[in-house]
Amino acid sequence: MSFLPVVARELRVAARHKATWRTRFFAVASALVVFLWIFGTMSRWSQPHQIGEALFHGMAWLAFVYVVIIGAFTTADCISEEKREGTLGLLFLTSLKGYDVALGKLAATSLNAVYGLLAIFPIMAIPLLMGGVRGEDMAKVALALLNTLFLSLSAGLLVSAFGREERRVAGATIGLMALLTAGLPLLGVLLGEGVGKKWFAHEADAEMVMALLMLPSPGCALVTALYGQTGFPIPEAYWWSLAVDHLLAWLCLAVACRHLRDAWKDKAATPRAQRLAERWKQWCYGDGAERARYRQRLMAVNAFYWLGARDRLKPWFVWLFLGIVGGLWLWAFMEWGNDMLDTEAAVLFCYPAHITLKLWLVGEACGRLGRDRQSGALELILATPARVDDLLRGQWQALHRQFLAPMILLLGVELLYLFAKNDHEWHWIVGVYIATSLLDYWALGWVGLWCGLTARKLSNATRATMARVLVLPWLLWLGWVLLATMSRTSGSFEMAMLLWGIFSAGAAVSFGMNARTNLHERFREVAVAKLADK
Q1: What average pLDDT does this structure show over 49-63?
Q2: Residue 270 and residue 278: Cα distance in Å, rounded?
Q3: Hey, is 73 helix, strand or coil?
Q4: Residue 146: which residues within 8 A CB-CB, separation 6 or more?
Q5: Gyration radius (Cα) of the chain, Å
Q6: What pLDDT, in 10s, does the model give residues 119-149?
Q7: Is the distance from CB of 157 to CB of 62 less than 8 angstroms?
Q8: Helical pair 343-375 and 314-336, crossing angle rounded to 10 deg
Q9: pLDDT tens readout for residues 261-312
Q10: What is the mean pLDDT of residues 214-224?
Q11: Which of 30-39, 63-72, 271-280 has the highest average model confidence (pLDDT)?
């Protein structure tokens, strides 16, 4: 047998896929759009070297976000999908080893991600000709991005080897990368600059602990490559961070290969594991009497509402997230006082919370009908006299139960900022964002349900929903800003915010209404067609 036969086969198959070619095209097109937008908006008042530096930094950070999250959309479900379909064990009937399968899956699923990043590098190198950027900076940033991509893909493979459900492995991969990228540095700041500083006898010890917790973060290598070593107590922090992340990636890959050989086997649960599973089930669903009362109360409203809201802890997880955000803001307020009441602080805390809730809503909406379609539950439901309107209403009631109150609370906090600040521009920003957020939540629910019903995989449905409702308005607005700047007809700030609101509301209303109409009129047709294809 040849060395790594699965890798060779998967690469040959991937090379013939149209998606491999489309990925490179769209990556280059996206990079060119961002490049032209930054260049067009800065060319009127900045020097060439300043434009080159801004272009390089902007492209580097956009590429960094891409490589951090790409593992959740590529490798996170490559092995867990095989386990769900029961085909993973067939591979081990041959003489294949765990590393053969793991590396083959890694090569097949990560090819497009690697091509997408490599396609961006030539455009990222254009600022070298404009000045303000050295060749050494370009080489360091490129190496840091490739290393982060390897870590993200390896983390997705590791989670996929231990997981089974697509939505959970994708969420776990994002959580693992978030812990490495932002969680450990935040812990370092808390220990080195915040509440933990008093635990150290010398300030230098606190700074060293903070630096050590920042080293595993992929952002540490990128920050030191872009902005230098200034203020970092560990010499050669870039290379140390690069080495730590590289070792972590190989460790994830090695553990996945080791576990993969036995991942397909159904093992009998130990008594302790059974007790823990039963205890967790009681936490989520309650004991028998509680489940009966809860089921009776929800089914009196809508049977599908009970089906989607059986897990009682889901709303509490959303409240826990908002509690963590509020706790971080309270800690920052105790550290920096009234500075946390400024506009920048509101944006720093409220906007990421909004984005997280929107992405969370997308995952729930896409997963509800998608999981039922894959398991065949929709086929049973459609064979009954159940009405499609009742099913969709129940799905929405479950989504409202989980997200409506937290979303209203978050918008209420932003309204308090709106009335507390005597800032005309801030009033426009918050007012337009609150109005469009309400439409976004409505549209994300409908589009997520429709894409979850029609897409083959949850990751495809998630990407399609986010692209239509969240990404497209920004692209349209950035295009308008670029054209207005290049034609020297840029309007007022109020006009810019109004146009952004129009683009966002237009995308939400058009895609949301289209998805709602399709779900009400074509639900049975599409669900049955997909089940037949399967």
Answers
A1: 83
A2: 12
A3: helix
A4: 117
A5: 25
A6: 888 888 888 887 778 888 888 999 999 999 9
A7: no
A8: 160
A9: 776 666 656 677 677 777 777 766 666 777 778 778 888 888 788 877 777 7
A10: 86
A11: 63-72
d(CA 77, CA 273): 25
The dihedral formed by the CA atoms of 444, 447, 452 and 455, expressed in degrees to the nearest 10:
-130
| Residue 308 burial (CB count, 10 A) | 23
* Rounded-to-integer distance, Cα 484 and Cα 40, Å: 9
Angle at which helices 343-375 and 166-178 cross, to 10°: 150
Which two tokens mark 306? 């009970």
Q: What is the pTM of this model?
A: 0.78
Among residues of the chain, what percentage have pLDDT more than 70? 82
Q: What are phi and psi of 16, to 5 degrees?
A: -95, -5
Q: What share of the chain is helix, strand, coil (3-state, %, to 5)?
A: 85, 0, 15
And the tokens for 182?
């932002």
Q: Token pair for residue 432?
A: 């337009």
492, 519 Cβ separation under 8 angstroms = no
The angle that helices 18-42 and 48-73 make with each other, rounded to 10 degrees, is 150
DSSP per-residue codes, 374-428? HHTHHHHHHTSS--HHHHHHHHHHHHHHHHHHHHHHHHHHHHHHHHH---HHHHH
Neighbours of 12 (CB within 10 A): 9
Q: In whole numbers, what is the pLDDT of the chain averaged over residues?
A: 79
Length of the chain in terms of residues written: 534
pLDDT of 488 = 63
Run of H or E residues at 114: helix 98-124
Geometric angle at alpha carbon 425, from 440 and 444, rounded to 5°: 5
Separation CA 380–CA 364 (nearest Å): 22
Asked whether the beta carbons of 480 and 507 are under 8 A apart, the reply is: no
Q: What residues contact residue 398 under an 8 Å CB cut-off, 6+ apart?
A: 304, 305, 307, 308, 309, 368
Alpha-carbon distance values, 271 to 262, 274, 517 (Å): 20, 5, 50
- Report whether 422 contacts 342 (CB < 8 A): no
Opening angle at CA 433, ends 429 and 437, nearest 5: 175
- The one-character DSSP state at 197 is G
Instruction: Show the DSSP H helices in 181-236 as ranges.
Output: 184-192, 203-214, 218-227
Query: What does the alpha-carbon distance between residue 217 and residue 294 come to, in Å, rounded to a whole number?
Result: 44
The answer to whether 341 and 423 have CB atoms below 8 angstroms apart is no
Angstrom distance (rounded) from CA 377 to CA 391:
13
pLDDT in tens, 220-242: 888 888 887 766 677 788 888 89
Tokens of 340: 């946390």
Token pair, residue 27, equals: 């990556």
Question: Are 391 and 378 spatial neighbours (Cβ–Cβ below 8 Å)?
Answer: no
96 φ, ψ to 5°? -65, 145
